[in-house]
Design a protein that fits this description.
The protein has 451 residues and is of the alpha/beta class. It is built from 15 helices and 16 strands. Strands 3-4-5-2-6-7-1-8 form an eight-stranded mixed sheet, with helices on one face. Strands 9, 10, 11, 12, 13, 14, 15 and 16 form an eight-stranded mixed sheet that branches.
C-alpha cells in the first residue's frame, strides 16, 4: 500500500481517538507517515486535480493512460496539480528524468519551478526542488531530476530520454507541433512513461491532435471549481467576463473554435456586442419563434429583437425553451411578448401551419402573429442577417452563449456544424431581425426604451 493510502487509513482510525490518545498516536508514527498526514496533497485537492485512475475515461478496462490533459480555466489549480504529480513521480522513482516544458524558459522557471504553485512550493518538509540555472535543471532531494525545455527551441529535446513529462500551457507553444513530436519520441525511459498537460484551451491544431491520440484522457474544469479561491476574485471575474468568448475560454476552460466558412465568427460576435441602456429608444420590438416539430424534440427558439431609433437592430434576449408541450412553449412566447412590450410575434409555420397561430392565440398572445414560411434552408436565410452584423447594423445587447454557439455553426452554402440537431435559437433570431430590418416595415407611432 502507498504512503498516501497508509496515511489516509491511519487518519480514519485516528478520528475515533480522544485528544490525548490522538497526540500519543501521532507522536508514535514514523516521520514520513506523520508528514503525509500533515502535508499530504490529498487533503487539499479538489476533484478536478486528481490524476485519472489507470483506466481513465475513454480507455479500455485495464488500459493505462499515456497523456493526461488538465484543461481548465485560470485559477482552477492546474499548475499545482501538475507540480504535485511531478513530485509524486520524483518520490516513487529516485532515478527519474522528468521533462518540464513551457512556452519559454522564463515560464518554466517562474511558473513551473519557482512559482507560487510550482515545484518548490509543493515540496514538503525536508524536501527540496533546487533550480540549477547553469544546467537548466531541477534537482529533487529524492534523487530525481527535472530538465527545463522551451517550446521556442524544440531541437533541445532531440536526444534526451525521459520517464515523465509535464507540459504547461500547451496552447501558447510557438513551435508546438515540433516540440511535442520530439518530446514524445524521447518519452521512452522506464516501464510506464506518461505526460501531463496543464493548459487553458486555445483552438490550435496541436490540441486537436493530442486529443485524438490513443491513451489520451482529459479532465476539464472551471475557475469556479477551486474552493480555495476567494469569492471576491471569483465574483469579479465572472461579472466582467462570464458568458463572453474570453470568459468561456479563460474561466470555464471551453475549447471554442470557429467553423470553417461560418457566417458568424467569435470575433464578429464580440465586435458586435454592446451594453444598451434605457436611454436608447426602440421603434419596434419583435419576438421571433421557431416552433419544434414535435413534443420533446428540438427546442422552441424564442428570441426578442428590437429596432433602435439609431437604425440598428438589437438582439435583446434569448428565451428559448426545450421539452415543453405546444401550450407550454406558447405561454413562454406570450410571457416574452409581454416582458418586452413587443409589437409582433413572427413564427415559422412550416411545422404545423395554422396550428402555430392557434396555439399562440390560446396562450393569450394579444398581438399580431405573423406566420412565415421557410422556402430556403436556415443557413441561406441567415446570410443577409449575418451581413447586418458585419456592416454594424445589428448588435447583441448582452451575452447569449447558446444562441451564439448556434450562429457560429451556420456556414456559407447552407451547412450547420453547431450544437444540437437544429439551430432553433438562431432561426428565431433570424426571423425577428428579418422582420425588423429586411422586410416591409409599418412603424407604430411613439418610441420605447429598453427596460
Amino acid at each position: 500500500m502507498s504512503l498516501e493510502l497508509d496515511a489516509r487509513a491511519l487518519l480514519r482510525r485516528a478520528c475515533a481517538l480522544s485528544e490525548g490518545e490522538l497526540k500519543r498516536f501521532l507522536k508514535g508514527l514514523p516521520g514520513p507517515v506523520r508528514r503525509e498526514i500533515e502535508e499530504g496533497w490529498w487533503a487539499q485537492w479538489h476533484r478536478g486535480q486528481v490524476p485519472p485512475a489507470s483506466a481513465g475515461a475513454g480507455l479500455e478496462a485495464g488500459e493505462d493512460w499515456l497523456y493526461w490533459q488538465l484543461r481548465a480555466g485560470r485559477g482552477f489549480g492546474k499548475t499545482r496539480a501538475g507540480a504535485e504529480w511531478v513530485w509524486r513521480q520524483a518520490r516513487a522513482h529516485a532515478e527519474a528524468r522528468i521533462a518540464l516544458v513551457d512556452a519559454n524558459l522564463d515560464d518554466v522557471v517562474k511558473v513551473m519551478v519557482e512559482g507560487p504553485s510550482g515545484l518548490q512550493a509543493a515540496a514538503r518538509s525536508g524536501e527540496e526542488a533546487r533550480w540549477v540555472a547553469s544546467r537548466r535543471r531541477v534537482d529533487f532531494s529524492t534523487g530525481a531530476k527535472g530538465f527545463a525545455y522551451s517550446a521556442e527551441r524544440p531541437e533541445k529535446l532531440r536526444g534526451p530520454e525521459h520517464d515523465f513529462a509535464w507540459c504547461d500551457e500547451l496552447g501558447k507553444w510557438a513551435k508546438g507541433d515540433a516540440t511535442w513530436d520530439i518530446l514524445v519520441l524521447g518519452l521512452r525511459r522506464g516501464e510506464r512513461p506518461q505526460a501531463v498537460i496543464t493548459t487553458t484551451p486555445r483552438a490550435v491544431p496541436l490540441m486537436k491532435r493530442i486529443r485524438a491520440l490513443p491513451g489520451f484522457v482529459e479532465t476539464r474544469g472551471r475557475t469556479a471549481d477551486n474552493r480555495h479561491m476567494t469569492e471576491r476574485f471569483r465574483a469579479g471575474a465572472y461579472a466582467a467576463y462570464g458568458g463572453t468568448r474570453l470568459g468561456r475560454q479563460e474561466l470555464d476552460g471551453e475549447l471554442i473554435e470557429d467553423v470553417e466558412g461560418a457566417l458568424w465568427t467569435r470575433a464578429l460576435i464580440e465586435k458586435s456586442r454592446v451594453t444598451v441602456t434605457s436611454d436608447v429608444p426602440l421603434r419596434r420590438v419583435v419576438i421571433g419563434v421557431d416552433p419544434p416539430a414535435s413534443v420533446g424534440g428540438d427546442a422552441c427558439g424564442i428570441v426578442a429583437a428590437g429596432l433602435g431609433e439609431d437604425g440598428i437592430g438589437y438582439v435583446l434576449g434569448d428565451l428559448s425553451v426545450a421539452g415543453l408541450t405546444p401550450e407550454g412553449w406558447a405561454r413562454k412566447v406570450a410571457a416574452a411578448a409581454e416582458a418586452w412590450a413587443a409589437d409582433r410575434v413572427v413564427a415559422e409555420a412550416n411545422n404545423g401551419g395554422k396550428m402555430v397561430e392557434t396555439v399562440l392565440r390560446g396562450a393569450a398572445v394579444a398581438l399580431p402573429v405573423k406566420l412565415v414560411h421557410a422556402s430556403h434552408g436556415k443557413a441561406a436565410r441567415a446570410e443577409p442577417v449575418a451581413a447586418l452584423f458585419e456592416s454594424g447594423r445589428a448588435k447583441f445587447s448582452g451575452r447569449f452563449p447558446e444562441l451564439e454557439d448556434e450562429l457560429c455553426g451556420l456556414t456559407i452554402g447552407g451547412g450547420y456544424e453547431g450544437p444540437s440537431r437544429s439551430p432553433d435559437r438562431a432561426d428565431a433570431m433570424v426571423w425577428a431581425l428579418t422582420e425588423l430590418m429586411l422586410g416591409p416595415q409599418k412603424l407604430p407611432p411613439g418610441v420605447r426604451g429598453f427596460f
